[in-house]
Amino acid sequence: MMKWFLLPSFTMVTTVSSVNLFVASYTGSITTLSLTQSTEGQYTFSKIATTETPGLHPLWQEKRGDLIYVCNDNLAAPNGSISSYKASATGQLTLVQQPLSTQPGPVSTVIYNQGKALAAAHYSGSAVTSFSIGDDGILTPLQSFVFKTPPGPRPQQDVSHPHQVVLDPSGKFIVVPDLGSDLLRIFSIDDTNHLTEKSPVSVSPGSGPRHGAFLPNYGETSSTLKFFLISELSNTVSSFAVAPSGDSISFTPVSNADILNKPAPEGLASAELQISPDGRFMMTSARNATLLSVPSTSSENATEIPSDTLQSWAIDSSTGGIAFQQLTPAGGRTPRHFSTNQNGTMVAVALQGDGRVVVFARDASNGSQGPLLASIDGMGEALSIVWDEYD
């Protein structure tokens, strides 16, 4: 069932041609959606391809050119896997490599060394792994780091839980938020694609660091690199000034704020953090607290439905300070992942709890979220969404 909304007074979204998005669902598929704007200004979603992944549970996508690498959580096996696909111009996915067995629970990947290698974070495997990428996109295992670090004080922190791999703008380091051990793990990168583990950075005990991002254009607006972190267990967002430190990098805390700009309700779980393409704003998401509502997406139901929230923040690029701007509906329940389009005028949200994908308008000039443009249900447990725009 689909429904779309457009407020004519919101002028930041201009007429666009059809664009594809890839949605990974934990129920075992990757769906290609086409988002099209009519001449009347209405946006609609349509499903144009579905790639079934029998026995696998895809939950993260990393796109580089026409290649997409997908993390799979293999519930029926002791290992995880990473699949490789090639995307056609029409949105069809062709399997490049059969799922490659990995450490358990891969939840994030990042491509490094100009497309020559890939690193993965393994939540349930307490590990970081690396792979070389052949000219044909084929992955070959390189390294595996398994962590036995003492965990944090909360029940969810039973062991080390690496949750993401983040490449710094220089391409020389990878940072890994470890939710289980309250650490930012740091790895340097050499010319042969190998990683070297450096001394980790401790964050607040019990905070549970989940995802992070570097300021993408720091050289244009600030001489100091900045890093932003969302912590799932403390429900906070933090910023750091990053500087060279011998053969590694150092992190100096700059600011820390509650994800909702007020104390978190019981059960809240912060999820995603992304920096806007221009580096001036930050968006975050929080799950398990339906504080707002949105119109029902069903034509048979005129009532409003509960919604978790997205948050908008302004970034002071010179200091790394953050200022809360806006609390808005996510479009439904459990916004585990979202992503903005290339020019920052739309944000797509994967809503795991409702099996829904939505797209909101976004004002790139001031970072505010606009009206709901399009929505599609029946997407299973939607866990990640990627625009087919980025190289």
UniProtKB/TrEMBL annotation:
User: Sorted alphabetically, which keywords does the UniProt record give?
Assistant: Signal
Organism domain of life: Eukaryota
One Pfam family for this entry, by name?
Answer: Lactonase
An example molecular function term from Gene Ontology annotations: 6-phosphogluconolactonase activity
User: Which organism is this entry from?
Assistant: Blumeria hordei
Q: Where is the signal peptide?
A: 1-18
Q: What is this protein called?
A: 6-phosphogluconolactonase
UniProt lists the family membership as follows: Belongs to the cycloisomerase 2 family.
